[in-house]
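Researcher: Let's do a round of design. I'm pasting the C-alpha cells now; please hold your answer until I've finished.
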C-alpha cells in the first residue's frame, strides 16, 4: 500500500538547537552532490540557521577552478560575506566540459580567492572554544595538515567534525575502526586515517556518514526545478547531474573507480535496473562508446547532503540515535549501515525548500542570456506555461526561517456578492489569474520552523469518542455497505512512525478507518471544525493580549522618559565655563541620556503596538484603537516640542541677558531639533487620519498605513537628533563634557535610525512575529483550516454546527454517467454554450432526480473531484470519461462523485463554497485529482488537498487521473509541477478566497502545505504509468 502521509504533514520534531559556525571543505564540479550541499548550506546561512565562516575547495589538480566555482555559486545566491579558499591539489583528474559551465563562472576574479590553509587558520583563530563545526565532503588532506601543524588550536576550537566518508570496524585500527573504500577516503587514505584517529584521540565529536546510510533519491528533482524556475543554477545542477553520470560511466568502463563500482552497480543505482534484468539484457557488454543517456532514469545518492544535514539545526534531530558509539570517552555518531539511514522525504523536503530559495535569489542575478535552454541536454526549454512567482511572496520565501519559502501577500477589498451563474465555480479564473491577494501586510506567511513544534503547555482539543452521544452521528453507514463494497477495507493503519501533532486529523483517521464507507460523520466534522475555530481564536487572543499589554506598559514609561528628556532642564546650568542659568535647557548634559532612553522605549512600544494587531477584518476595531494610540503618541510629541520651542525662544527675549558665546552656537541646533518634529508631526497625524477614514473597512491597508506612519515619525526624529548632534559638535559642547554624554548623543541618533528601519524592513517584523508566536504557542496543522471557515475575514466565521447540518441535508452527489458527462461537455468543452445556458438544464435534472443525478439525501460520494479550471477542458473531460468508464467496468456502476460544476449551489458565493469545502471533502470516501500542471498552481486545489489530509484522508485513497492526450513534454511538466511545488506559485481569481487561503498557509506553515501537495508525486507517477499501460 501507499505510505501514510498524515503523520508527515502534521508532525514536528523537538525545537532545533542553537546556530553553529561551519567551515566547509568541498570539491564542487565533478560531483553535483557537492553543489547541492553548498546550496543547502548557503541558504541555511542566509536564513540564519548557521553561520558559514568559510569554504575551501580542493582536489583534482584543479583546486583553483573548483574554488572559483564555489565562489560563483555563493555570488549567485547573494552570499558575499563568506571567504573562499583554494585547498590542496590532490590527485589529477580531467575536468568535463559541463563542470564549470555555470553562468558567471568566467567573471569570478581569482584574486578574490585566498590560500586554503590561511582561510582555515583564520577561522580557527577567530572561533570561540569548541564552537566550530568542520564539514568535510571531499579529500581530507587539508584538515589533516591543519591537525598536524596546529594540534592545540584544532582541539581547542573545533567542537564537531562531520565527514562524508565511512568507517569499518577492524582490529587493525588504533581505535577499532579503519576508513572504508568510499571515494573521499580513497583520494588520500593516509590523510583519512590521520583525521579519524586524530578525532578519536583528542575527543573531537564526529558525525561520519557512510554510503550505506544514504538513501536513493530520484534524479528528477534537479530537472524539475530546472523546468519550473528561471534559475541558471538549477539548470546547471540538472545538467551536471546528468552529464556527470555520463562521465561516471566512462570511469566505470575504464576501471578507475573502486572495485565495487562496476557496471551492475551503475545500472542498479542510476538506471533503476535490478540484477536479474541486468543479466538478461546483456548490459555487461556495453562499453565506453555506448550511449548511456537513454538508460539514465534511476536514482542518485546525496552523500554530501546527508553529511551536512547531520549538523544543520533544522535536520540533525532526524538522524538515528542508535548510531552513537563511545570511543576514548567521547560519543561519536557513526552512520555506517542501512539501519542508520534517514528517511528520504526529509532530505527531499530540505532540498526542495533550499532550491526554491536558491532559485529565487539566482533568478534575480541571471544575465540576459543565461536563460537560454538550447545548450542544455536535460532541459531543452522552460515550459511557456510555467508560473512565475509573485515577487512579494518570493521575498518572504527567501527569508524563511525553516528553509521554507515565505511570501508577502495582501488583500484588497472583498466581495461577498452571490456568484453569478455564468462565473466560474472555482477559486480561479478562466482567462486570468491573481497571484495571491495583492494587498496585505507582511504578517501573511510569517517565518516558521521547517518542522514547527507546538509549545509543550499548549492545550490540545480532546475529541469525544466516535461512539459519543452527540445526536449527529451518521447512522446509515452499515446500510450503505453494499453500494460501497468495492472499497478496500484491509488497508493498514497509519504506520508512518511519526507522531501526529494534530489531534483533529488523528481522530478523523480513526473514524474513517472504523467507518464502512471511509467517511466522516456529521458529528465528527462539527466537532473538528468548531475545535479549529476555537483554537485559532484562542491563539490570536493570547498573541494580542501579550503584545498589547507589553506595548501599553512600555508606552507609559516612554512618555515619562520623553517628557523629562525634552522639557526638564538640569539642576546645574552645565559644566561648560560661561554657561548661563537661562541656557540650562539647551546645555543640559542629562538631555542625551534621557533622549536615548525615550528613543528606545518609544521604538519598542510602537513596534509592539503594531505587532498586537493582525490585518484581518475581525480585528478592525483593534486596528482603529491602535491608530488612535498612534494619534495620541505623535500628537503628544508635537505638543512637547512646541512647548520646547517656546522655551528656547524665550532665551532670546530682549530682557534676558545675552547668552554666552558657546550657547549661541547651540541655539540654532536646539531650535531646529524642536521645530522639525513639531512641524512634521501634524501632517503625519493628518495623513494617518485620512487613511483611517478612507480605508476604515480595509484592515490590511490600515495596518500598512500604521507601519508607514511610525516609520516616518522615527525617520523625522532621526534627522532632528542628527541636526542637534552636529550643532553641538560644531560648537564644541562635548569637549567640556564627559565621554558618556557624547556616547549618549550618538546612541540617541542610532536608536531612532534603527527604529525607523525596524518599521520599514519586513524581515524584522517577520522575525519578531515568529518569536512572539513561539512565546504564545505555535499554531497547529488543524488551525490552518480556520480561515477557510471565515476566521479573520470580513464575512465573519460560519457556525460549524449549522453549516454541517445544512450540508448534510443538501449534499448531493452525482453518478458520473453519460448524462453527467454530457452536461460537463456542454459546460466545459462546447464553446457555443456558457454556464448560464447549461445551469437551467442541470437545475431541472436535480429537481426531478432523473438523468443519473441523485436529489435530496444521498449516500456519501465515492470521490471528491479536484481539478483546475485553467487546465485544458477537453483533456479534462476525456480523463473523467475514461476514469468513469474504467470504474463502471470494474464495479458494475458509474462512480458517485462530488464535482462542483455539477453539484455546487449555483447561488452560493465562493467564500461560502470555501467554508463548506472541509465538510464535502470529509464526507467523501476518496479523493480524485484530475491532474494537469495547473492543479499545482491553484490555491483552490491546494485548499482541497490540504482539507483531505486534515479530515483524515490518506494518500492511499487518492486517485490521480492525468489529463488525457498529453505529450511526453506535458507529462514531464506535470511531474515537475508536483515535484517542485511551492505555495508561492499558487494563485486564485477571487481576492477574498486568496486572502483566506494565504492566511491558512500562514497558520498551517508553508512547509506543511508544500509537503501535502508534494506527497501527490508518487500518485501522479502511478497515474501516468496506468494511463500509458491502459
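Researcher: That's everything. Go ahead.
Model: Designed sequence:
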Amino acid at each position: 500500500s501507499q505510505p501514510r502521509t498524515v503523520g508527515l504533514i502534521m508532525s514536528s520534531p523537538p525545537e532545533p538547537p542553537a546556530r553553529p559556525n561551519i567551515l566547509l571543505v568541498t570539491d564542487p564540479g565533478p560531483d553535483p552532490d557537492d553543489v547541492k550541499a553548498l546550496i543547502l548550506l548557503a541558504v541555511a546561512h542566509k536564513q540564519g540557521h548557521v553561520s558559514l565562516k568559510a569554504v575551501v575547495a580542493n582536489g583534482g589538480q584543479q583546486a583553483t577552478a573548483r574554488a572559483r566555482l564555489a565562489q560563483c555559486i555563493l555570488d549567485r545566491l547573494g552570499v558575499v560575506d563568506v571567504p573562499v579558499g583554494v585547498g590542496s591539489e590532490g590527485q589529477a583528474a580531467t575536468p568535463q566540459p559541463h563542470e564549470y559551465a555555470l553562468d558567471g563562472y568566467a567573471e569570478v576574479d581569482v584574486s578574490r580567492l585566498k590560500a586554503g590553509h590561511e582561510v582555515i587558520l583564520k577561522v580557527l583563530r577567530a572561533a570561540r572554544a569548541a564552537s566550530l563545526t568542520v564539514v568535510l565532503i571531499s579529500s581530507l588532506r587539508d584538515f589533516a595538515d591543519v591537525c598536524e601543524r596546529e594540534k592545540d588550536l584544532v582541539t581547542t576550537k573545533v567542537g564537531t567534525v562531520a565527514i562524508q566518508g565511512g568507517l569499518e570496524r577492524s582490529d587493525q585500527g588504533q581505535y577499532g575502526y579503519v576508513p572504508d573504500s568510499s571515494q573521499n577516503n580513497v583520494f588520500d587514505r593516509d590523510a583519512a586515517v590521520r583525521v579519524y584517529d586524530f578525532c578519536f584521540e583528542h575527543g573531537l565529536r564526529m558525525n561520519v556518514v557512510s554510503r550505506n546510510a544514504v538513501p536513493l533519491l530520484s534524479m528528477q528533482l534537479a530537472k524539475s526545478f530546472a523546468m519550473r524556475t528561471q534559475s541558471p543554477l538549477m539548470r546547471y545542477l540538472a545538467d551536471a547531474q546528468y552529464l556527470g553520470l555520463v562521465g561516471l560511466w566512462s570511469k566505470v568502463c575504464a576501471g578507475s573507480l573502486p572495485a565495487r563500482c562496476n557496471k551492475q552497480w551503475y545500472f542498479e543505482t542510476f538506471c533503476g535496473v535490478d540484477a536479474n534484468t541486468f543479466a538478461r539484457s546483456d548490459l555487461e557488454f556495453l562499453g565506453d562508446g555506448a550511449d548511456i543517456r537513454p538508460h539514465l532514469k534511476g536514482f542518485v545518492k546525496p552523500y554530501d547532503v546527508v553529511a551536512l544535514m547531520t549538523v544543520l539545526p533544522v535536520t540533525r534531530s532526524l538522524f538515528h540515535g542508535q548510531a552513537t558509539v563511545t570511543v576514548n570517552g567521547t560519543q561519536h555518531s557513526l552512520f555506517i549501515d542501512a539501519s542508520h539511514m534517514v528517511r528520504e522525504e526529509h532530505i527531499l523536503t530540505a532540498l526542495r525548500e533550499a532550491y526554491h530559495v536558491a532559485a529565487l535569489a539566482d533568478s534575480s542575478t541571471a544575465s540576459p542570456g543565461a536563460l537560454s535552454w538550447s545548450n542544455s541536454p536535460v532541459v531543452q526549454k522552460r515550459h511557456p506555461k510555467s508560473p512565475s512567482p509573485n515577487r512579494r511572496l518570493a521575498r518572504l520565501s527567501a527569508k524563511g526561517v525553516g528553509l521554507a519559502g515565505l511570501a508577502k501577500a495582501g488583500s484588497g477589498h472583498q466581495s461577498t456578492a452571490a456568484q453569478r451563474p455564468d462565473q466560474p465555480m472555482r477559486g480561479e479564473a478562466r482567462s486570468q489569474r491573481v497571484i495571491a491577494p495583492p494587498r496585505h501586510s507582511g504578517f501573511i506567511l510569517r517565518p516558521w520552523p521547517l518542522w514547527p513544534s507546538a509549545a509543550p503547555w499548549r492545550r490540545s482539543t480532546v475529541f469525544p469518542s466516535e461512539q459519543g452521544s452527540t445526536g449527529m452521528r451518521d447512522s446509515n453507514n452499515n446500510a450503505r455497505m453494499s453500494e460501497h463494497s468495492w472499497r478496500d477495507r484491509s488497508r493498514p493503519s497509519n504506520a508512518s512512525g511519526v507522531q501526529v501533532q494534530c489531534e483533529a486529523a488523528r481522530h478523523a483517521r480513526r473514524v474513517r478507518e472504523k467507518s464502512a464507507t471511509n467517511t466522516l460523520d456529521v458529528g465528527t466534522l462539527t466537532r473538528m471544525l468548531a475545535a479549529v475555530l476555537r483554537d485559532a481564536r484562542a491563539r490570536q487572543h493570547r498573541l494580542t493580549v501579550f503584545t498589547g499589554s507589553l506595548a501599553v506598559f512600555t508606552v507609559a514609561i516612554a512618555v515619562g522618559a520623553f517628557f523629562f528628556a525634552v522639557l526638564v532642564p538640569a539642576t546645574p546650568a552645565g559644566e561648560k565655563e560661561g554657561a548661563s542659568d537661562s541656557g540650562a535647557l539647551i546645555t543640559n548634559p542629562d538631555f542625551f541620556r534621557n533622549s536615548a532612553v525615550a528613543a528606545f522605549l518609544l521604538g519598542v512600544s510602537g513596534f509592539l503596538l503594531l505587532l498586537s494587531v493582525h490585518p484581518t477584518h475581525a480585528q478592525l476595531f483593534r486596528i482603529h484603537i491602535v491608530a488612535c494610540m498612534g494619534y495620541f503618541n505623535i500628537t503628544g510629541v508635537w505638543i512637547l516640542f512646541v512647548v520646547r520651542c517656546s522655551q528656547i525662544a524665550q532665551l532670546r527675549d530682549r530682557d534676558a541677558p545675552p547668552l554666552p558665546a558657546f550657547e549661541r552656537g547651540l541655539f540654532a541646533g536646539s531650535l531646529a531639533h524642536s521645530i522639525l518634529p513639531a512641524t512634521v508631526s501634524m501632517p503625519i497625524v493628518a495623513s494617518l487620519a485620512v487613511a483611517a477614514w478612507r480605508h476604515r473597512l480595509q484592515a490590511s491597508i490600515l495596518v500598512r498605513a500604521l507601519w508607514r506612519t511610525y516609520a516616518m515619525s522615527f525617520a523625522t526624529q532621526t534627522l532632528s537628533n542628527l541636526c542637534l548632534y552636529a550643532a553641538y559638535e560644531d560648537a564644541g559642547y562635548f569637549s567640556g563634557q564627559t565621554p558618556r554624554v557624547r556616547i549618549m548623543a550618538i546612541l540617541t541618533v542610532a536608536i531612532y535610525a534603527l527604529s525607523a528601519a525596524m518599521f520599514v524592513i519586513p524581515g524584522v517584523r517577520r522575525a519578531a512575529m515568529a518569536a512572539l508566536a513561539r512565546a504564545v504557542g505555535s499554531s497547529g496543522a488543524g488551525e490552518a483550516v480556520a480561515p477557510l471557515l471565515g476566521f479573520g475575514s470580513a464575512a465573519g466565521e460560519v457556525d460549524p454546527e449549522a453549516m454541517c447540518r445544512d450540508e448534510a441535508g443538501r449534499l448531493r452527489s452525482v453518478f458520473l454517467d453519460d448524462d453527467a458527462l454530457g452536461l460537463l461537455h456542454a459546460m466545459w468543452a462546447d464553446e457555443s454554450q456558457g454556464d448560464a445556458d447549461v445551469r437551467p438544464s442541470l437545475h431541472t435534472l436535480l429537481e426531478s432526480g432523473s438523468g443519473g443525478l441523485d436529489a435530496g439525501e444521498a449516500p456519501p460520494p465515492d470521490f471528491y473531484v479536484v481539478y483546475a479550471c485553467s487546465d485544458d477542458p477537453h483533456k479534462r473531460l476525456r480523463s473523467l470519461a475514461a476514469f468513469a468508464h474504467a470504474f463502471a467496468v470494474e464495479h458494475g456502476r458509474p462512480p458517485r462523485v462530488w464535482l462542483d460544476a455539477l453539484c455546487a449551489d449555483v447561488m452560493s458565493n465562493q467564500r461560502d463554497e470555501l467554508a463548506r469545502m472541509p465538510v464535502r471533502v470529509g464526507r467523501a470516501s476518496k479523493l480524485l485529482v484530475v491532474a494537469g500542471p495547473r492543479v499545482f498552481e491553484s490555491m483552490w486545489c491546494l485548499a482541497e488537498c490540504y482539507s483531505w489530509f486534515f479530515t483524515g484522508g490518506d494518500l492511499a485513497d487518492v486517485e490521480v487521473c492525468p489529463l488525457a492526450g498529453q505529450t511526453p513534454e506535458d507529462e514531464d511538466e506535470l511531474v515537475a509541477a508536483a515535484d517542485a511545488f511551492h505555495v508561492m506559485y499558487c494563485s486564485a481569481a477571487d481576492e477574498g478566497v486568496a486572502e483566506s487561503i494565504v492566511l491558512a498557509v500562514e497558520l498551517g506553515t508553508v512547509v506543511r502545505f508544500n509537503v501535502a501537495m508534494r506527497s501527490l508525486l508518487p500518485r501522479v507517477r502511478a497515474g501516468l504509468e496506468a494511463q500509458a499501460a491502459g
